[in-house]
Amino acid sequence: FFNGGRETPFPLEDRVLINSPKEVATYDLKPQMSAEEVTAELSTRMADTSYSFIALNFANADMVGHSGKFDAAVKACETVDACLGQLVQPFLDQGGSVVVCADHGNADIMYDEVTKGPHTAHTLNPVPCIVINDRLIGRTLRRDGALKDIAPTILSLMDLPIPKEMEGVCLLEK
């Protein structure tokens, strides 16, 4: 999702795909999906290699949210929370930043007030963007951000120029 839909890795890019479980018909039956495996793989790679950028997708809240099953969605979110808890400090220890964001909501609304049944579609609610970096203590993020601002924010965190073709701006307030 972060590479413009390109299948072929770029030079110097390591791309690792860990499939979601195939042994279940729907992900509410295994709301942890493959998050623990993704976390273990990334932990191993971080110990062996120094990366300047890692894009990681935990699909749990989205995929389990489509089931409309509240308890499963809670378990999905708890799983991602635990996995992030294992990954943040190692990133910071390597001098890195962690940006947690989403392109849409799903598990944020699990009950449809109109139909009085499960809500299973993406939502249009604002989603959080969390930036963690020891150098940013005391800094804040703009509250009017949009998805187009994520890449410029990451580039700024990496001290890289923001291409003029990008319409977004860095979310970090001065």
Quick recap:
The chain is mostly helical and 174 residues long. It contains four helices and four strands.
Question: Could you characterize the architecture of this molecule?
Answer:
- The chain has 174 residues and is mainly alpha-helical.
- The chain folds into 2 domains: 27-133, Alkaline Phosphatase, subunit A; 138-174, no CATH class.
- The chain has helices spanning 35-48, 60-65, 70-93, 150-157, and strands spanning 98-100, 111-112, 117-118, 130-132.
- The strands form 2 sheets. Strands 1-4 form a two-stranded antiparallel sheet. Strands 2-3 form a two-stranded antiparallel sheet.
- Helix 1 (35-48) packs parallel to helix 3 (70-93).
- The longest helix is centred in the middle third of the chain and has 24 residues, at 70-93.
- The mean pLDDT is 93.
